[in-house]
Amino acid sequence: MCPLGTPVPRQLLGQVPSSSDTLPEIGVEFKERPSPRRIVMNFTPYLVAWAVIAAVTITLLIYRAVVGAHEDESLHVAGGGARLVAEQQAMFKKLGVIERWTKIFLILTVVYGLALGGAYLYYLLRQGM
Fold first, then answer.
1. Coil, strand or helix: which one is 64?
2. Most CB atoms within 10 A, among 9, 59, 76, 125?
3. pLDDT tens track, the chain, 129 positions
4. Count of beta carbons in the 10 Å neighbourhood of residue 122
């Protein structure tokens, strides 16, 4: 059936133009051009991992601020404040551990983010934007 609803004669159904009918008569052969190689890369898992590391870093920064807010500003070195000296030393030790992990995660967040951004730019350049 043709689109207008009229039947198509049987002899026309078998006539499909071959590739030699569509090529020019001058003998030029067309070679199929190879398609450019497309690299498919899914950045979602890497982006989620970076977001988790960044969230841990932010959490550590907030925790450091909360713990540091309870810190005693005055320095107790001797005398009747032996208990205060011990509390202050424990606080400084705790803050030192928190700050060390915060620095580690901050450096990790920045380096991983830069590497992820560089990899994405490289991916865009390879794809031809």
1. helix
2. 76
3. 555 666 655 555 555 555 555 545 565 566 666 666 666 778 999 999 999 999 999 999 999 999 988 776 766 666 667 777 788 888 889 999 999 999 999 999 999 999 999 999 998 888 876
4. 12
